[in-house]
Amino acid sequence: MYTFRQATLDDMPIIIHHRHQMFLDMDSPERAEMAQRVFPGWLEKALPEGTYLGLFAEFEGQVVAGTGIMFHHWLPGSDGSTLRGYLLNVYVEREHRRKGLAKTLLQQALDICQGRGINTVTLHASEMGRPVYQGLGFRALNEMMWKA
After folding, report:
1. Packed helices 12-25 and 39-49: angle between N→C axes, nearest 10 degrees
2. Is-contact 85 38, C-beta < 8 A?
3. Using only C-alpha atoms, what is the Rg of the chain?
4. How far apart are CA 56 and CA 54, in angstroms?
């Protein structure tokens, strides 16, 4: 039986592990390395200040899946909201995949966003995750990016 909980600062190693493994599964070793080198410093500040919230699924007391929500300010939308949610770090350990854990965690994240009055949530989807996100009502946008 799976149980669900929010992450604490003590869970940083698990969140970092999930982010690292997520990028390895996406065949992006340079981003996986950055997840271990740069991400921990950001996470150490974001978790206690509440700009990042982690959610976990546990099986027999062990974390087997997780996701995170980053809360950030944005221009007011048609509903007047100036906050947005950004989903990241969606990861399920291999032996626990295809059991609905990612979908359950993502729905919990969306419920938290709605509870905070956040009506716009974005993410970057991997090919593996795209069907899960589409099943929850996410749609592709025409976004572009510039990097120096």
Report:
1. 130
2. no
3. 15
4. 7
Residue 106 CB: number of other CB atoms within 10 A?
A: 23
Phi, psi of 115, deg, nearest 5: -65, -25
Q: Give residue-wise pLDDT tens across range 91-148.
A: 999 999 999 999 999 999 999 999 999 999 999 888 888 989 999 999 988 888 788 8
CATH architecture of the domain 2-135 equals: 3-Layer(aba) Sandwich (3.40)
Q: Which two tokens stand for residue 99?
A: 């059991």
- Cβ atoms of 53 and 7 within 8 Å: the answer is yes
Tell me the C-alpha to C-alpha distance, in Å, between residue 146 and each of 1, 127, 139, 143.
Answer: 45, 22, 22, 10
Task: Let me know: does 105 contact 75? Beta carbons within 8 Å.
Answer: no
Distances from the Cα of 74 to the Cα of 43, 84, 108, 118, angstroms: 20, 6, 22, 11
> What's this model's pTM, rounded to 2 decimal places?
0.92
C-alpha distances (whole Å) from 40 to each of 11, 50, 73, 85 are 11, 15, 22, 20
Q: Which two tokens stand for residue 86?
A: 């950004």
* Burial classification of residue 104, based on how many CB atoms lie within 10 Å of its CB (0-12 exposed, 13-18 middle, 19 or more buried): middle
